[in-house]
Amino acid sequence: MRPALCFVLSELQEGLPVSFSREYAAKDLDLDFVDLKYLGKLTVTGTAEKQSDILHVYGKMTGRTEKTCARCAKETAEPIEKRLDLYLPVQDQNEIDIINELRENLVLDYEGPYTCGGADQEECQRTISRNLAQHSHEIPPKSPFDVLKKLRNIKKENH
Ligand SMILES: [Zn+2]
Question: Which of 7, 15, 25, 64 falls 20 to 30 Å from 40 in CA-CA distance?
Fold first, then answer.
């Protein structure tokens, strides 16, 4: 079954906020990049409020990601928490599914290739040397993220 986050508009009273909470298996949301994976569950909690021709949905999404260092390929897991604040136009429909907006929110937040750097710089370098010795015949993959980055910048400019 495809994941969904539906609100039935006839069940919402105008100006009366209703809270909600949902859990998704991150893998069902199809969010993964080459070097960023969402692990386990993604939890979405928030409030939905109908305001004449707008549905305002706000809250947060929490989960865990695993980033792969672009230099040494070391994987680092970390918790994430992202704010959710959506204004959705309501027309004649009685039901709104915002799962695509959630997914878009997470995907557009992707910051591009990451390096572990900082305190791990030395270890980063050691791992690279080790990997090079092992895989000297491999050509590193070309980054497919430029298009997404552009999209993200356009989105930012529009706000
Ligand atoms: Zn590294």
Answer: 7
